[in-house]
């Protein structure tokens, strides 16, 4: 690492709060699937800002849409609306196949989208009291879940290390194993909502057991609870479909609410809560929720450009095809113990030399030196979530380099 970047990283430590630890790179530009750091070194970005940059960096259509909007009208507050928010809400409802009478609330992040879903659950609980006439206040989430870092989203998140320093968190949330038996045992008429990620990204790209989501749909309906699906990481084409959950639900079935963020703005902060059907859409009334920035014209232009390119350029098919090709390549590499692949969201388990061996961290560092960006979700697990426009040739370059990265023992 040469002088310019070191100097900037020192200034970072002097000026920015240390919650992210020490960033390893100062990035200054990007194009397609590549980014460049402050020293001029180029990297293939196999993480895409953690499943965000769906179209890669500086996609011409995205840049044009955002620039034009910035030059015209960037922000207006929610006392007013703009054609962009109407168009993006309509498009989101359309591509996801949301049922008649569904609606969208725009926020600025995944945590905020889940906060809105949590508030929706509380209103549902009040509107549908239990058999004793008390508001339903229990919310069932899954073990290993990640739903964000704000207090409500954190209450939904399972990881003890994230939660413990900030207790007390909003009450009523229980974390159960992702099994049909656990869900059956947890559900009764005191539950307002069940919230699940169709693929648990932060946990290391863990899919739900076969049939789990379909059964969750049946059970929540039976007990009068909302089924909330967190598609913040898995949605908007990441797994090769607009919704990862649609492949796990019988045809014609839909969750009661879906949250989005990461890929939705293609790199601009946009979050959304989709409420399915008229009844759920009526739970939050005027004045019960809000945001200053959410849905602003600039964010909407970014979201609309992202969804339009994904649709027009058949990006979903690319994500499926290249994702499968990448998984095949990875499975053939010695030192790879297993690959979980959902479109272009991949968890790669590596062989450890001992139970304490942080092989994934070592490979992430070696990859960075070799010009590839990826991350580790655990001591032996890599996560790959590249731009959805990445090509087979691009990923072949990484697969070819991987044996060398795995062999880099010292770091
Ligand atoms: C990233 C993530 C969030 C939180 O989103 P932020 O934009 O960081 O607040 C919530 N849920 C899931 C599944 C995520 O992957």
UniProtKB/TrEMBL annotation:
4Fe-4S is among the record's keywords: no
Name the UniProt record assigns to this protein: Acetylornithine aminotransferase
Alphabetical list of InterPro entries matching this protein: AcOrn/SuccOrn_fam, Aminotrans_3, Aminotrans_3_PPA_site, Class-III_PLP-dep_AT, PyrdxlP-dep_Trfase, PyrdxlP-dep_Trfase_major, PyrdxlP-dep_Trfase_small
GO terms of molecular function: identical protein binding; N2-acetyl-L-ornithine:2-oxoglutarate 5-aminotransferase activity; pyridoxal phosphate binding
Note: May also have succinyldiaminopimelate aminotransferase activity, thus carrying out the corresponding step in lysine biosynthesis.
Subunit structure, interactors included: Homodimer.
A cellular-component GO term for this protein: cytoplasm
Organism whose genome encodes this protein: Kocuria varians
Pfam families according to UniProt: Aminotran_3
């Amino acid at each position: 690492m040469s002088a310019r970047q070191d100097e900037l990283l020192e200034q970072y430590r002097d000026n920015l709060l240390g919650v992210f630890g020490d960033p390893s790179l100062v990035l200054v530009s990007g194009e397609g699937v590549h980014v460049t750091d402050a020293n001029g070194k180029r990297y293939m970005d196999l993480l895409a800002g953690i499943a965000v940059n769906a179209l890669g960096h500086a996609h011409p259509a995205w840049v044009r849409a955002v620039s034009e909007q910035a030059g015209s009208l960037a922000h207006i507050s929610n006392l007013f609306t703009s054609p962009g928010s109407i168009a993006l809400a309509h498009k989101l409802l359309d591509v996801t196949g949301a049922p008649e009478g569904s609606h969208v609330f725009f926020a600025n992040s995944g945590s905020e989208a889940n906060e809105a879903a949590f508030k929706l659950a509380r209103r549902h609980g009040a509107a549908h009291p239990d058999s004793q006439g008390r508001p339903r206040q229990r919310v069932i989430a899954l073990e290993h879940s990640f739903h964000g870092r704000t207090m409500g989203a954190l209450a939904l998140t399972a990881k003890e290390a994230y939660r413990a320093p900030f207790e007390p968190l909003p009450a009523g949330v229980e974390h159960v194993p992702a099994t049909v038996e656990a869900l059956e045992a947890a559900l009764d008429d005191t539950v307002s909502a069940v919230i699940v990620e169709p693929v648990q990204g932060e946990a290391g790209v863990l899919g739900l057991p076969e049939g789990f989501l379909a059964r969750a749909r049946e059970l929540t309906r039976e007990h009068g609870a909302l089924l909330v699906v967190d598609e913040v990481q898995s949605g908007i084409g990441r797994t090769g479909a607009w919704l990862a959950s649609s492949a796990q639900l019988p045809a014609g079935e839909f969750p009661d609410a879906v949250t989005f963020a990461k890929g939705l703005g293609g790199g601009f902060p946009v979050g959304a809560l989709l409420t399915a059907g008229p009844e759920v859409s009526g739970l939050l009334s005027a004045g019960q929720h809000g945001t200053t920035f959410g849905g602003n014209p600039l964010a909407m232009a970014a979201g609309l450009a992202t969804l339009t390119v994904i649709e027009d350029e058949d990006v979903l098919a690319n994500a499926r095809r290249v994702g499968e090709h990448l998984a095949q390549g990875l499975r053939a590499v010695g030192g790879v113990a297993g690959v979980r692949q959902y479109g272009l969201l991949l968890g790669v388990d590596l062989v450890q030399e001992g139970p304490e061996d942080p092989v994934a961290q070592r490979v992430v560092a070696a990859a960075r030196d070799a010009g590839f960006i990826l991350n580790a979700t655990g001591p032996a697990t890599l996560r790959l979530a590249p731009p959805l426009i990445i090509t087979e040739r691009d990923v072949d370059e990484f697969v070819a380099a991987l044996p060398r990265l795995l062999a880099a023992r010292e770091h």
